[in-house]
Amino acid sequence: LKEAHIPVPKGITVQSLDELKNAEELLLYPLVVKPKSSHHGIGITTDIRDFKHLELAYHLAKKYDKQIIVERFI
User: Is 20 within 8 Å of 13 (Cβ atoms)?
Assistant: First the structure.
């Protein structure tokens, strides 16, 4: 996709709230949070715009995988 000049979101894999906070600072809002092994959209939260909702999305995704991907929402 990137070679075709289609925007590809930068993502960071996190496993703790400290890593989540670091990802928030690096990626900036709006964000998407999803379990690394997500299927059919399960456990994914999109268009996150503040840390309160980022943390809630993180805990939801943690129900489905230990590794969570945080990426820019495009």
Answer: no
Angle between helices 17-27 and 51-62 (to 10 degrees): 130
Strand ordering across the sheet containing 11-14? 11-14, 68-72, 31-35, 45-48
pTM exceeds 0.90 for this model: no
Nearest in space to 12 (alpha carbons), one of 3, 24, 21, 23 = 23
Rounded distance, CA 30 to CA 45, Å? 11
Query: pLDDT tens for residues 32-67?
Result: 999 999 788 899 999 999 999 999 999 999 999 999
Say which DSSP state 4 is in.
Answer: G
